[in-house]
Specification:
Rossmann fold
Length: 227
């Protein structure tokens, strides 16, 4: 990452009811404004804060369960990640419903996005008897994982530290998660990935992610290859 940038762009992604807006407010305070994404009426909330001499600009993506192309919100979120190339993605996950929320996390990792995961609502998770080993989860995902209770302002400093390290490329993790889809599918994925990687038309995309989306029948991705 460029350490001399005037500001770092951080996309905030999460499923509905993950506490994404609460985390956004915790990090930015009152320094927010609202616009629309280009060409659509979907609201885009932007917040700015400074930390250790660095300016961080948060862009709140629409709440989505996944990064398919089936809904307007999903397309807006995905297109922002692809076209705007943020320095980092802050993924908000509900710790009390972790398995469901990690679906989006894995999809972000498959896109090759630099990522920090905020495990929000840790108090609710513990109240339900769940125990989450954040360090083990971070090692498994290959990205920093920060526990938060945004409604009470807890985890703010740790999250700001993780965001800055991620923007500067100083975190110790390497986005190492690769989902194994089984031998037969992996053989097809390997061939598709190699073909895509060798085609300069798709140099802005993670080739394995495009291959996965092709196999999944994603309409927007398929249309790219039929143009």
């Amino acid at each position: 990452m460029n350490k001399n940038k005037q500001e770092y762009i951080v996309a905030v992604a999460g499923q509905p009811n993950s506490g994404k807006s609460t985390v956004f407010n915790m990090l930015t305070g009152a320094r927010q404004f609202v616009a629309n994404y280009p060409g659509v009426t979907v609201e885009k909330r932007i917040g700015i804060y400074s930390y250790q001499g660095q300016k961080i600009k948060l862009v709140d993506l629409p709440g989505t369960y996944s990064l398919t192309s089936y809904s307007l919100e999903e397309r807006v979120a995905r297109n922002f990640l692809i076209n705007e190339n943020p320095d980092l993605v802050l993924n908000i996950a509900d710790a009390s419903n972790l398995e469901r929320h990690l679906v989006l996390t894995v999809q972000l990792l498959e896109m090759g996005m630099p990522l920090v995961v905020a495990l929000n609502m840790m108090d609710i998770s513990k109240g339900r008897g769940f125990e989450i080993d954040e360090e083990s989860l971070a090692k498994e995902l290959g990205v920093p994982v920060v526990p938060t209770i945004a409604q009470k302002g807890r985890g703010k400093e740790e999250l700001r530290q993780a965001i800055l390290k991620g923007c500067l490329g100083k975190d110790k993790y390497k986005n190492s998660l690769v989902v194994d889809y089984g031998q037969k599918i992996e053989q097809i994925l390997d061939e598709l990935t190699q073909n895509i990687a060798n085609d300069n038309r798709y140099s802005n995309y993670n080739p394995r992610w495009l291959a996965i989306k092709l196999l999944a029948g994603d309409t927007e991705v398929r249309s790219m290859f039929h143009q």
